[in-house]
Structure formats: C-alpha cells, structure tokens
Amino acid sequence: MAKRRYSKRGNKIEPAVMTMSFNLINPRTVSLNNERYYIDLSQCASLLNRRFYRQGINWAVAGFKFITSQDATLGISKLPNTWVMSNSWEKGFRAWQKMNREAMAEAPSARPKFLDFKIFANSEHHGNGVLANQLPASSEDLIATAGEWDYSTYEIPLSDASPANSVTRDVIAVGENYPGPGASGNFAVSLIEGYAASRALPNILEPNMPADAIDASGSVAENWQSALFNEGTTQDSEVLLDLQSQNKQAPYPFENDGIHVDTWYPGGANQLAGLQIHDISTVTATTIGGITKMKGGNFPCGLIEIAVAHQGDSPIITLLVDLIPGNHRGYLCEPMTDM
C-alpha cells in the first residue's frame, strides 16, 4: 500500500513584515507641548506586504521600542479592551453592512472590491484625518506612500423637511457623538454612544421587594410566613431589612438610577471618556542609549495612539512596533467579531 502523504500547507505561516518602523510626524497638537500620533496597523500591514488587511481585526503586538534622546513622557493608548467596545463595534459594523446591503440590492455589481468597515479611534484622530496617519519607514528613512484607505461613513436619512436627503457621518470608536467636524469636514458618531443609546437600562432595584417583606416579627406581622419560624432569637426582620436596602443597585452609574440622567458606558461621553491607557514611560537624559521599551498586548482594530508630552521643541522620535507571527496572513490576530 502506498504511503499516504499529508500536506502541511494549511499550517504554513505566510511571510509578513514583523517589525514596523515609524518616524513620528504630523502630530495632532491637543495643547501646548502635548501631541498625539495615530497608527492604523492594518493600513501599515497592507502597505508593507502589498496585500489587503481589513481593519476589523484585533492585533497582537509583541512590544514597542521608542528611540529618542530628548526628555519626554510617552504614552500608548488603544480602544478599550472591554465587552462594551466589542459589542459596540459589532453592532455598528452590522448596521453599516445592512445600510450597504440595502443600497446594493438592485445593483450588486456596485460593491467595491476592498469594501471594509474602518473607524477612527477618537475625536483627535478624526480631527487629524487619514492623511496624518503614521506610515512605515524603510532603513533609508523613506516613508511609505499611502494607497487608498477610506474611513467608513454612515448616510443617515433626514426625517425633517431639510432639502438634503441624508447627512454623512464619520465613525469614531469612543467619546461623545458629534464632537466637531473632522479633517473630512464631517461630524462623527460614536460607536459606544450609539450602542448605549440602543440598549435597555438596568432595573433601579433588583429585586424590587415589597415594603411588608421586612415586617416579620410581632403578633401582627405582615410577612407572617417568615415570622412563622421565629424562635425568639431569630433576627429575620433585621436580616430582611439589610437585604432590602443593600446591594440592590448595579455597582456602576446608569441613566435613571436616581442620580444620573444620561448613559454612562465606559469609553462613552460620560464615563472614562476616551481611549484605554496601555502604557506610560518617561525619557530623560539618563535613559541608556535613548531607548525606551514598552509592553505589548492586543490592539482592537489595530488602532494605536501615541501621546508625547515635552518641554521646548517636539522631540525627534523613531518607533519600532514588533508584531507576532500567526496564521492570519502572517500575523497573530483575530476578527473583531470574535473579540
């Protein structure tokens, strides 16, 4: 009998660039001596490998290396690594798919080959625009030339008597809705705020016990079934009073909880607005070799914000981002739908 041969092609890891180098330019100045730079890993991987990587993947990053000899405080932030962000992205993605699907129902050939749901990280990224995204550089300090990388929009129908049929909205992951026009000239809607507005609120009290529940003692007890087993030393009334008044409300703020009048999802407009802090480090004159390393982790949508705080002129910074080999076209990552 001939020996059966098994192909290992399915386990092969495709070749892909594992280290991305950036010369940080085109910052978003948020205040004096305080700047932000934005990286879209899927855009950079598409350029370095000359193949299309969707933005809707959760990238694994091995680590970061900053090279600069100037004093500065460096910070890395990312989309929140929470179920709220995961569900917000998925619901926004499904709505975008449905919008496109209905529009193409009678013209399926209109579907672009590289149709992809792409979002901005936050209002600062939106304000800076796609043209200011950091692009990878070569060993000769030559920065890659960008291809088409269009961020997604929603076309929201107008229900009033306005002349226009719809209004165009860009998409940001975190923060409030309509923070201001971005580089595109469009206002943006927030995925987290949109998700929060579409969900039911928790019950104010759970369980919502009747007032008579604590009346479980004495000769005219309303809760006579509990009082039936009192033995003189049983403290059922006191225990029931504690149970009625303690630990009945969610341990986080929410709309109509008796105090707050708006939704309070983390990463939205009111609670922990903005991106999630990933790591922070300080560069000083004593930093050996001018090299500062920061930890790796997972980065939803491959979106990275680099914050630089400094005194005087903006520091010249080279950043190396190390990725991890894997089975997703050479990289270790997973679809955002599996986050």
Secondary structure elements and pairings:
Elements: E1 19-23, E2 28-31, E3 34-40, H1 41-49, E4 57-67, E5 72-78, H2 83-103, H3 123-128, E6 153-157, E7 166-172, E8 187-190, H4 191-197, H5 224-227, H6 236-245, E9 276-283, E10 291-300, E11 303-310, E12 318-323, E13 325-326, E14 330-331, E15 333-335
Parallel strand pairs: 7-8
Antiparallel strand pairs: 1-12, 2-3, 3-11, 4-10, 4-12, 4-15, 5-9, 5-11, 6-7, 13-14
Overview of the structural elements:
The chain is α+β, with helices and mostly antiparallel strands. The chain contains six helices and 15 strands. It has helices spanning 41-49, 83-103, 123-128, 191-197, 224-227, 236-245; strands at residues 19-23, 28-31, 34-40, 57-67, 72-78, 153-157, 166-172, 187-190, 276-283, 291-300, 303-310, 318-323, 325-326, 330-331, 333-335. Strand 2 (28-31) and strand 3 form a beta hairpin.
List the defining traits of the structure above.
single chain; 339 residues; alpha+beta; 5-stranded antiparallel beta sheet; 6 helices; 26% strand; globular
Quick overview:
The protein is of the alpha+beta class. The chain contains six helices and 15 strands. Strand 6 (153-157) and strand 7 form a beta hairpin.
